[in-house]
Structures are given as C-alpha cells and as structure tokens.
UniProtKB/TrEMBL annotation, chains A, B:
Pfam families, per the entry: PadR (PF03551)
Protein name in UniProt: PadR family transcriptional regulator
InterPro entries in UniProt: Metal_resp_DNA-bind_regulator (IPR052509), Tscrpt_reg_PadR_N (IPR005149), WH-like_DNA-bd_sf (IPR036388), WH_DNA-bd_sf (IPR036390)
Organism: Belliella aquatica
Domain Transcription regulator PadR N-terminal: 19-89
Family annotation (PANTHER family): PADR-FAMILY TRANSCRIPTIONAL REGULATOR (PTHR33169), TRANSCRIPTIONAL REGULATOR RV3488 (PTHR33169:SF14)
DNA sequence: CCAAGAAACTGGTATAGCAAGGTAGCTTCT
DNA sequence: AGAAGCTACCTTGCTATACCAGTTTCTTGG
C-alpha cells in the first residue's frame, strides 16, 4: 500500500467525469483531452483514455466523427450526446455530494 | 455503464482516505466507522470495511487492540500510527489537489 | 442448552487504471 | 522512391479495490 497507489485509487472514476466535461464543452480528440487533463495536473495516459472513450461510446454518452488532419493521420473528434448530457448532470450532483461528505468527515476533529 | 456504477467508482479510493481520518480522530471500532460514514452519506458495508482495515493494518498505518464489550463480543479498537499520520498528510494534499483539478476542468465552459 | 444478535471475516465477481506493445497513416529527409 | 520518425488509435495482461452474499466466532438471555 503506497501513497501513489492510493492516489491512483482516488483519481479513479473522476476521469470519466472530467472527460465527459471536456467533451461537453465542444468537439475534441484524444490528444486535446490529454493536454487539458495534464495541464490541470490530472495525469492520464493513452492506455487509460482510449478504453474509457470506447466505453462512453458504447454507452451512447458520446459520439464521434472522423476528421482529416492537415498534418498527420485522421482524428476522432468526440462530442457529447443527449444521454451524455443527462448523465453528466447526475455526475455533477454526485461529485458535489461526494465533496461535501468528504469535507464533513475530514474537517471534523 | 450506469450512473450508479460510476458513482461507486467515484467513491472508490475516497473510503480509505475518510476511514483514516476517522481513525486519526480517536479510537474507534468498525461499527463506529460505519455509523459515521453512513451519517455523512458515504455508504459502506462491512464486507468492504474489514478488508480495508486489514490492508491498513498490514501497511502499518493503523494498529488495534482488543477491548471487552459490556454487551456482546470483544471489539477491535483502531488507532492511527505515526506512519499513518504521515500517510494521511500526503492524502490530504492529494485530495486538495484533486478537488482543485476537477474544479478547474468542470467549471470551465 | 440453545436461539439471537453482534462483531469480525472470506470467496467470488466486476470494474478501472496502468504499463507496454502493436498497427496504420502521414511527413520529412536523403 | 525508400527510410525514418511522428501521430493517432487500439489491445492485452496485470493489479487493486469495492460490492455481494455468505460464514465463523463469541456473548448474552430465556
């Protein structure tokens, strides 16, 4: 049981939430997401992101379209669906509640 | 991929953090923890808690002592160790950073 | 003694992140 | 044209953890 392991566990599940938010703001492809997450100090690697995106797609929470690139191979640009928007609203509430619960427990003494 | 499943995933990893905090405040046994977590709407069941406590014990982050009960079988009263206190400080920082990162991502538009 | 309850524990299942490797298309340089 | 390198997407094997549904152990009360 190491700190880094626990940190990973704490991040778990938040990724899906964050990525849905990023996609909800407009069309993006994988590298865009990684850049933004990294900037916010929420580290992600490709091997984590791609399966996650596929899960979101399978669940019809996001959709994508292929777009040719000026430099390099084509990209999958993701956008959020109606179902995804609804789902995201639930997650927003869950997150708020979770922060509140944690705050309640960790700030007591 | 259901909302409830995602909610579970978001809660994952926070449990360890919350439980360490509860133990850090003073000696408690399993039912105390469950009561407090339930009160804070952080639902946990016994089958989750006991393995977690054993992990913390194995990692020397907490220790326990048996205490006779007036009514019923003896209880394991847990308290935090020095290592556990250090660990908890790291987790506090991790949590703050995580909240901040998530806030950054989810509040943008 | 036996039933009931409390406390601690266990095995099986599912999910998710990570590390590492693989495939294919495009660009650049010789 | 050919080779090298980059970019983007995808897959596999591993590990860790929570949940569910029991099981065991101990104590008390009828």
């Amino acid at each position: 049981m190491t700190a880094s392991n626990t940190q990973i566990q704490m991040r778990k599940g938040l990724l899906e939430f964050c990525i849905l938010h990023i996609i909800a703001r407009g069309e993006v492809y994988a590298s865009d997401m990684i850049d933004e997450l990294t900037e916010a100090k929420m580290i992600v690697v490709e091997g984590t992101l791609y399966p996650l995106l596929n899960r979101l797609k399978t669940a019809s929470l996001v959709s994508y379209k292929w777009v040719e690139s000026d430099s390099g191979p084509p990209r999958k640009y993701y956008s959020i669906t109606e179902d995804g928007t609804e789902f995201l609203q639930i997650l927003d509430k869950t997150w708020d509640s979770l922060v509140q619960s944690t705050q309640l427990i960790t700030s007591k003494r």
